[in-house]
Amino acid sequence: MIESRLNQILQEIRQTEAKSGRKEGSVTLMAVSKLHPYDEMQEAYMAGQRLFGENHVQEVETKIPLKRPEGMSIHLIGHLQTNKVGKIVPLVDSIDSVDSLRLLQKIEAHASASAKKMEILFEYNTSGEASKSGFCSEDSLFEALDKVGEMEHVIPRGLMTVGPLGGGEGRIRQAFRFLWLLKERCQTRYPSLDFSTLSMGMSGDYKIAIEEGSTMVRIGSAIFGPRNYQASV
Ligand SMILES: *Cc1c(COP(=O)(O)O)cnc(C)c1O
Q1: Atom 13 in ligand 1: which residue has the minimum CA distance?
Q2: End-to-end alpha-carbon separation of the chain, Å?
Q3: 208 close to 200: Cβ distance less than 8 angstroms
Q4: pLDDT tier at 129 (50, 70, 90 boundaries)?
Q5: Interval 72-92: pLDDT, tens
Q6: What is the predicted pLDDT for the residue at 92?
Q7: Which one of 81, 85, 118, 210 has the fewest beta carbons within 10 angstroms of its own beta carbon?
Q8: How far apart are CA 183 and CA 188, in angstroms?
Q9: Is 32 in the pocket of ligand 1 (CB under 6 A)?
């Protein structure tokens, strides 16, 4: 089941790349496994999936063993509270939801203390929805980017956003287009930093995201099915 859904999604990603003039293989698939048991992650791994996304620090701690199969990579994609940075830094390969300078500084401090290099993405709130996390203004993002160059343990890789929930295709496309343009402005302003990853698109809107330049789509329910918010994992 998981294997056939994965293959279906991968095929659709490749088709959408081709249709929108994107280079084949330029979009990476992240399997978002939050609120699904580790067994299902292993099933996806056996089918060839390597990159997984998780939302909650506690779930990563309790669900995923420290000794992981070769090449399995875990990114934190959910909002991270500063008091949980120390817990998560040793457990993940990237924090894709950096949304404040304060959080960035905490990550640098903990990565430094554990002599680890931590890859990060900067999350931007492109929808203006108050419920969404992410930097809300270019100025606040630039303030963080001004500082990140001096940090030795965080390695910026690009930007991330969650598209608007409602509003139809037009608003979704607009949000993704905004992030792509923001990435271009960042790259011009900070030529020595890496902005090659543009993480945008989920089960419901990943094709639009690919058309608008996404390099990483985060797919949960279309691979693993509906999430059980009651179950404790
Ligand atoms: C849950 C989640 C996803 C995956 O959502 P689906 O609609 O199930 O594909 C992607 N990104 C973030 C930040 C999420 O929290």
Answers
A1: 77
A2: 20
A3: no
A4: confident
A5: 999 999 999 999 999 999 999
A6: 98
A7: 81
A8: 9
A9: yes
